[in-house]
Amino acid sequence: MGSHREQISTAGLWSLMLIFNVASAITVPIGAVAGQDVWISILLALAAGSLIVWTYSRLLESHPGKAISEIAEGLLGNWAGRVVGLFYLWYSFHLGSLVLRDFVEFLSAVALPRTPIPAILFPILAVVVWGVYLGVEVLSRYAQTIYLFVIFEVLVSSLLLFNQFDYRNLLPVLDKGWSPVLEGAIQITTFPFGETVIFAFIIPFLNQTDQVKKISLRALLTGGALLLLVHVRNILVFGGLTSKLTYPTFSVYQYISLFDFLDRVEPLAIVTWILAGYIEISVCLFACAMSLAHVTKSSGYRIYVIPLALLMAQLSRFIYNNHAELIETAANAWPWYSLPFQIGIPLMLLLVSVFHKRKRTRTKGE
Amino acid sequence: MIAQIVLFLLFIALLSIFQVRSLLSQQKKKEIAVYLTLMSGAGLIGALMLAGIEVPSPAPPIRAMFEPISKMIFPKP
Amino acid sequence: MNRIRRGRKKGGAPLLDARELRLEDDLAQNLTEDLVKNHALIQDIFRNCSDFVCHEIVSADGRKMLTLYIEGLINTEQLTQQVIGPLQQTPLPKHDTTADGTITSLQESVLPNSSVKTVTDLTTLTQSVLSGHAAVLAEGAAQGLVVSLQGWKPRSIEDPQGESYIRGPREGFTEDIRTNAILIRRKLQTNRLKVESFTIGELSNTKVELLYVEGIASETILAEVRRRLSRIQIDGIFESGYIEELIEDSPYTPFPQIQNTERPDVTAANLLEGKVAILVDGTPFVLLLPYTFWSGLQSGEDYYERFMISTLIRWVRYLFLFIALLFPSLYVAVTTFHQEMIPTNLLLSISEAREASPFPALVEALIMEVTFEALREAGVRLPKQVGSAISIVGALVIGQAAVQAGIVSAPMVIIVSLTAIASFTIPRFNFAVSIRILRFPLILLAGTLGLYGITIGLICMLIHLNSLRSFGVPYLYPVAPFSMRDLKDVLVRAPIWKMTLRPHSTAPENETRMPSGQMPSPDRGTKPDRKE
């Protein structure tokens, strides 16, 4: 019925955030440095992640219908708004190209070893562009159609691996002290939990503005629970080997075998990766185009989708020379690099916003 | 290689013409400027990549800046 | 003949040539008191219509009169008994022989039939004559009478061919819109069943009726349907498919956005869910809207069988939907790209069977799928007696001989036949066709990118499905956007006594279908009801 304002429901936002949280994190190793203690890292990261999520969702909830750059503009003026917009433009762009790189890398490694990279890159790019073009409402509904599949896939595969579990793999606990566990926790906090900060460009579309905190925290906890299950499962099967595998989840699927009949279920892992990774890339591209539209004060984001997607694909190719570099950067530089975006800017804006409100109430004398 | 570059640039040009036409009819000058900047960036980088010339990556400076923090907080033997 | 271009009216009314212009001028006139002039005008309007009958009679008091009708369209016996007879035998009361009084008294005392109406202009008169009325014009009266005497026989009510059920009413719609509306009215005997009538098609003047249950159907959907129906401008409507294509939300999609049915019981049940029905004269196919993806996988019979059985059958349909859509492409992907994913024993037998085949799996799959589509199409178009010959040819030549000759591999034949069977389990024909069409791009994607290609294709489909709406209702509702309550009729077929609410998407204002707590048990009514 023509042009109605785009809206997403609470369930839509929840599933979008859930999938965004778990999409690549269920397949690639997270917090590998913590070894068999990764479950402690995930739990700690959940607590830290909740803080990040609470900060930005509190900020967005107090300014309903506004994206983070618009909030900055309202609080600190035109230029501050643009600077914040530019920060997130870069962050979502960078994040998007990393996810895209990971996406293509995985497919190239496990499913299509002899297919040239562009042949893998362009189909997904085309679909992402189409989805982002159709809008966030369609993306959120897409997430709603697939999230049950993702959850079921994780649960069922874990059940089927039950006979492979060795509980001694979880021991010894904290044998190297707290340092690696904390490092793992920091890594997991910033990837994947903190990355949801780019939902600051999607949450304004939520139709119930007072539910932001509740929904984003719920999505974080569900996602965290799934990740905990997946990574503990991988440790239970592989033990110390897990942190040395490139794609532990994919490898673990090769171990599924039921009565010599149900085996070779790795394609499920590939399909999940594609279905969920699609959301992750699309959300990044959407946030990127939205922030660009805010920065340039354009009338719509759609026109920037194609050029940004092309640039994102190009950056994803030349940003790292090889997979080792990717892993190295993701482990050591990424957490510290992304903390300002994930907590720094939102926290600062939140403080300014609270301060403003206090000042206003004092001057008005209410 | 040259054929590839030409084809890629042609593709970019076609996309731009197609999209700019719709923008022109709506009198959106600023959007056209931003769009064309991005598209020519994409064209340039794509051509360089196809030509095999290394494009400077933003990753090394980021690593140089942030890895020391990691090393400082969690020193490794 | 010279074409005089009148230019397009707003909305693109058809151009009229000189003759049509003259006719339009004739039609624009009113009846006069001069019978000769009226006669001439009408003769001009119905010039060269050999089925048009206009004969003069003399009434009981010596007044000249004309009766006009289309031969065969009205019941001539009734015309003689109910119109000509009384006119010739009953004289008018003396005081009523004034010009205007004539028609009134004719209507009141000579033709006391409820379906008699007066007309004053030629447009209405012509229209009535064309739709099965007889018209009576009297000398000295600037009015005429039309009597409804529709005399042609519609096809009798039969078991609907396209949607036959094992259990369920054996009546289907016919080509006659009155019969169809009455079939529904007999199922819903309430004044809240409203029938709004439209005439669409400038030359066909097809009757179109909008049926809904007042208080249940959503007013916003109704307003939208009325708006879309009234904006149609076309020369003729011959099937509800015309209407469907002219009012649907997104034309560029393989998926149907409006349901059609031949069954009054299905229509009535949908009306009670708050949907809207559009009846078109001349076709047994009634349109139902809004439509969702899941309606394509539901059959009316689901509600007549025991709920467990229906639930199971629905699951089978969902499974076979996947098979119909994905099986050939999965086979192509796995044999071309991911041989390592097949269990070893199976891989051995497949590769053994494929050894002789000269084509790559992709080409083989495309050939076989196209052949199957051709066989199906041939079987549908041909008369029944020849149709069976086609299936024999198909089964023997394509299946047996081609495999023995080593042109196609046996697994491919199995795959294609299974896919064919699977696509026939989808209860709605138009929905099944769209699924079958989508199989081809998926096979191509599978042949070029393997499993990745298939998944990309699936994402495209999901994104597209999620962007569709049917009259404001999202196409994948109640899955996305999610509604636990309405999922009861999608994921399973909940027992009748559990489905106490109408779907929120179509009946937002009046949701209660029945009070809860009607689960039957021997004790029911003697003990207090359990809380649901």
Mind sketching the topology for me?
The complex is a heterotrimer of chains A (366), B (77) and C (532).
Chain A: H1 10-22, H2 38-62, H3 68-76, H4 78-110, H5 117-134, H6 136-160, H7 178-190, H8 212-238, H9 248-253, E1 257-258, E2 262-263, H10 266-295, H11 305-318, H12 323-332, H13 334-364
Chain B: H1 2-25, H2 29-50, H3 59-73
Helix pairs in contact in B: 1-2
Chain C: H1 18-28, H2 35-45, E1 52-58, E2 64-70, H3 76-89, H4 99-110, E3 116-119, H5 122-130, E4 133-138, E5 144-148, H6 177-187, E6 193-200, E7 206-213, H7 219-230, H8 240-247, E8 259-261, H9 264-272, E9 276-280, E10 286-289, H10 307-336, H11 344-354, H12 361-381, H13 384-404, H14 410-424, H15 429-467, E11 469-470, E12 473-474, H16 484-487
Antiparallel strand pairs in C: 1-2, 2-4, 3-5, 4-5, 6-7, 7-9, 8-10, 9-10, 11-12
Helix pairs in contact in C: 6-9, 10-14, 10-15, 12-13, 12-14, 12-15
Describe the structure.
Chain B: The chain crosses the membrane at residues 32-53. Chain B: Keywords: Membrane, Transmembrane, Transmembrane helix. Chain C: It holds the Pfam family GerA. Chain C: Belongs to the GerABKA family. Chain C: Residues 507-519 have a biased composition (Polar residues). Chain C: This is Spore germination protein. The complex is a heterotrimer of chains A (366), B (77) and C (532). By secondary structure, chain A is an all-alpha fold. Chain A has one domain (10-348): Hydantoin permease (Orthogonal Bundle), CATH 1.10.4160.10. In chain A, 69% of the residues lie in helices and 1% in strands. Chain A has a two-stranded antiparallel ribbon with strand order 1-2. In chain A, strand 1 (257-258) and strand 2 form a beta hairpin. In chain A, helix 1 (10-22) packs parallel to helix 8, helix 1 crosses helix 10 (266-295) and helix 3 packs across helix 13 (334-364). The longest helix of chain A is centred in the first third of the chain and has 33 residues, at 78-110. The mean pLDDT of chain A is 89. The longest helix of chain B is centred in the N-terminal third of the chain and has 24 residues, at 2-25. Chain B has one domain. Chain B has helices spanning 2-25, 29-50, 59-73. Chain B has 77 residues and is mainly alpha-helical. Chain C is α+β, with helices and mostly antiparallel strands and 532 residues long. Chain C has three domains: 31-148, no CATH class; 177-291, no CATH class; 311-474, no CATH class. Chain C has 16 helices and twelve strands. Chain C has helices at residues 18-28, 35-45, 76-89, 99-110, 122-130, 177-187, 219-230, 240-247, 264-272, 307-336, 344-354, 361-381, 384-404, 410-424, 429-467, 484-487; strands spanning 52-58, 64-70, 116-119, 133-138, 144-148, 193-200, 206-213, 259-261, 276-280, 286-289, 469-470, 473-474. In chain C, the strands form three sheets. Chain C has a five-stranded antiparallel sheet, sandwiched between helices. In chain C, strands 6-7-9-10-8 form a five-stranded antiparallel sheet, sandwiched between helices. In chain C, strands 11-12 form a two-stranded antiparallel ribbon. The N and C termini of chain C lie far apart (76 Å). The chains are: A mainly alpha (366), B mainly alpha (77), C alpha+beta (532). Chains in contact: A-B, A-C.
